[in-house]
Design brief:
294 residues, alpha/beta, four-stranded parallel sheet, two-stranded antiparallel sheet
Length: 294
């Protein structure tokens, strides 16, 4: 697949070049590249219909699902700045990110791990979209021509996202990255690790982190792999999905592989489809690499 100049061009190009190939498999939802492009564009037109414009901040506070992907790509399509929020944040932590970024829009889950996110916020952004209001949000779409004009305005040097630091030595701070920086860095990453079209990529790393969002979601879309979003890591469910969905790519931190290797059912699990494992972000013992390969 040829490389796009902006993230806004990613789904239109993928829809042209591999329209019927599978882009996302998320439970009962299976979207081809053509269908993902349509969902992302619909979200983009819904944003435009509510006055969201180039440079506005769109925050997502939700687990890994197809809606996260569609909302993120829809925001990018109009040149909005994506602001991912950690799903483990408490209300005051999320409020800091929303206020610091100036987010006009919050896309969030009705609840996740027993937490109802909107109830944690004293003052939500002016536009809030939940699972329950997702369909209603798509009423009153802006015309397609308006989206075409908005997409054409997006430049490789525009800010694509604002990702916040962990805040270990103070309040989290927003770090800006342009469309060009992101596509160049993670296109190279995908090439170096060997991600390729037709791979079935289990994205366990959360989308709110660059590992899940950029090395996961965007890298898969750039190469033509299929995204299999995974909301919560546990070894039982990961082993089951590898077998059931013939997962071929499984990146994760060293602790993920330790959990799988130590699982009592590992020896009987069907892992023959796995082709590529990528690890990092912590100390990686040499012995762990040998065990992963074996």
């Amino acid at each position: 697949m040829s490389a796009p100049a902006t993230i806004a061009e990613l789904t239109p190009r993928a829809a042209r070049e591999r329209p019927e190939e599978l882009a996302i498999s998320d439970g009962d939802v299976r979207l081809s590249y053509r269908e993902l492009h349509a969902r992302a564009d619909a979200f983009a037109r819904a944003l435009l219909g509510r006055g969201v414009a180039h440079g506005d901040r769109v925050a997502i506070w939700a687990p890994n699902t197809w809606r996260w992907v569609a909302a993120a790509l829809g925001a990018h399509a109009i040149g909005a700045v994506l602001v991912p929020i950690n799903t483990r944040y408490k209300g005051d932590e999320a409020a800091h990110v929303l206020a610091s970024s100036g987010a006009r829009v919050l896309v969030t889950a009705d609840q996740f791990l027993g937490t109802r996110y909107l109830e944690l916020l004293a003052t939500p952004p002016e536009i809030a979209v939940t699972d329950a209001t997702w369909s209603a949000f798509h009423d009153g779409l802006a015309p397609e021509a308006e989206l075409h004009r908005a997409r054409a305005r997006v430049s490789p040097q525009d800010i694509g996202d604002m990702m916040f630091t962990s805040g270990t030595t103070g309040a989290p701070k927003g770090i800006l990255a342009t469309h060009a920086q992101t596509l160049r860095a993670f296109g190279d990453w995908a090439s170096i690790v060997g991600l390729r079209g037709g791979d079935r990529y289990l994205v366990v790393a959360p989308f709110f982190h660059s590992f899940g969002y950029k090395a996961g979601m965007l890298a898969a879309l750039m190469t033509g792999a299929t995204i299999h979003p995974h909301a919560i890591f546990d070894a039982d469910s990961v082993l089951a999905r590898i077998a059931a969905e013939r997962i071929s790519v499984l990146p994760g931190p060293p602790t993920l592989y330790v959990s799988l290797l130590q699982h009592p059912e590992r020896a009987s699990a069907d892992l023959r489809s796995l082709r590529l494992a990528v690890t990092g972000a912590a100390v990686v013992p040499v012995e762990l690499v040998h065990r992963m390969r074996d």
